[in-house]
Specification:
- By secondary structure, the chain is of the alpha+beta class.
- The chain is 31% helix and 23% strand.
- Among the domains are: 70 residues, no CATH class; 86 residues, Ribosomal protein S6/Translation elongation factor EF1B (Alpha-Beta Plaits).
- The strands form 3 sheets. It has a 4-stranded antiparallel β-sheet, covered by helices on one side. A two-stranded antiparallel ribbon has the order 1-2.
- EF-1 is composed of 4 subunits: alpha, beta (alpha subunit of the eEF1B subcomplex), delta (beta subunit of the eEF1B subcomplex), and gamma (gamma subunit of the eEF1B subcomplex). Interacts with elongation factor EEF1A1.
Length: 250
């Protein structure tokens, strides 16, 4: 309500809620431990990665803590977001932004079920958009399903990532009379799926003795250092021992 003065007369004029949009509606997701709250969150995240902006922030932390447990699979957008934010659990205090009240996040057209908007019932009954909203919801649902199908298709076609490592080996001979060319030939004769030999050189150790330093790249699931050591030291006429000088994931 507001007072308008005309000369000495005072008129009482009802404030119209048309421009503000804050009457009969509240912002937020409601109870995020209920199915209705999770449904709102799921719909909200259907075309978003985060609650606010394009990086994880305190907004995500506030909503994550309100959800408290993993959403059911049917709320797949909310579940995807929940698992992603969960991975930041140890760094959540350092995420950007300032945590606000839970009601400050989410869609701004949530129905007011608290009873505080009862005085504006007539305003709530006016649907300015009619059936267009339902049509948009159907279109959005269809678009989400198409995008999900495309994602699953790309995921199925994407080749699995092969974990590889670069290993530098030190192969030591028995003495200075060991034929190092023959020793290297024996080492390179070891063949296995997921094993590729690289460059090599002789490195002085002392007393005229040199060790073979040789590089190789292996697929982690197929070749390990234990297997390499077993096969290399099997050439006992030339090899005294084998050590891993460097090990790096590729």
């Amino acid at each position: 309500m507001r007072l308008v003065l005309f000369g000495t007369a005072v008129c009482v004029v009802a404030a119209l809620p048309i421009a503000t949009g804050n009457f009969g509606a509240i912002m937020g997701f409601g109870d995020l431990k209920s199915s209705s709250g999770l449904q709102l969150l799921n719909s909200f995240l259907s075309d978003k990665s985060y609650i606010e902006g394009y990086v994880p922030s305190q907004a995500d932390v506030a909503v994550f803590e309100a959800v408290s447990s993993s959403p059911p699979p049917e709320f797949y957008h909310a579940l995807r977001w929940y698992n992603h934010i969960k991975s930041y659990e140890k760094q959540k205090a350092s995420l950007p932004g300032v945590k606000k009240a839970l009601g400050k996040y989410g869609p701004a057209d949530v129905e007011d079920n608290t009873g505080t908007g009862g005085d504006n019932k007539d305003d709530d009954d006016i649907d300015l958009f009619g059936s267009d909203e339902d049509e948009e919801s159907e279109e959005a649902k269809k678009l989400r399903e198409e995008r999900l199908a495309q994602y699953e298709s790309k995921k199925a076609k994407k080749p699995a990532l092969v974990a590889k490592s670069s290993i530098l080996l030190d192969v030591k001979p028995w003495d200075d009379e060991t034929d190092m060319a023959k020793l290297e030939e024996c080492v390179r004769s070891i063949q296995a799926d997921g094993l590729v030999w690289g460059s090599s050189k002789l490195v002085p150790v002392g007393y005229g003795i040199k060790k073979l330093q040789i590089q190789c790249v292996v697929e982690d699931d197929k070749v390990g250092t234990d297997m390499l050591e077993e096969k290399i030291t099997a050439f006992e006429d030339y090899v005294q021992s084998m050590d891993v000088a460097a090990f790096n994931k590729i």
